[in-house]
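Hey, can you fold this one?
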Amino acid sequence: FALGASTAGFAGVFNASKLGLVSPDQFGFAVSFTVLAMVVLGGMGNIWGVAIGAFTLYEIQSVLLKQLNQFFQGQHIPILEKIDFVQYQFLLYGLALVGMMLLRPEGLFPSRRRQRELHEATAEVGDLPPPTAAIGD
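Sure. Predicted structure:
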């Protein structure tokens, strides 16, 4: 915890010195949602996983979405030519978050503790006895 907090504080100092002013308006929904997506994608409880998640989302945001626009412009598909994928980045992040929660809830690079917690919880659910007949059947 202390390592993560000190790293966040260090980054906050650089951000404040770069911007010159820090206010709550700078950290709206878009920033909060992007940080949440980075943490969930990379893996909760693992610093390296979160760093890789942040790098992955940055690359998706700055490179992949722009290249998707150029790719579909050249395909001459009328529906896809009109879509600007950069405008729909939060929709795509949301779909990715739902997919991650369904398919791999521990993230891409989970901590051993978090992975063990999730797998123990699914094992306990699997050990439940079968349901009995309802009253009146």
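The chain has a mean pLDDT of 79. Let me know if you want another pass with a different chain boundary.
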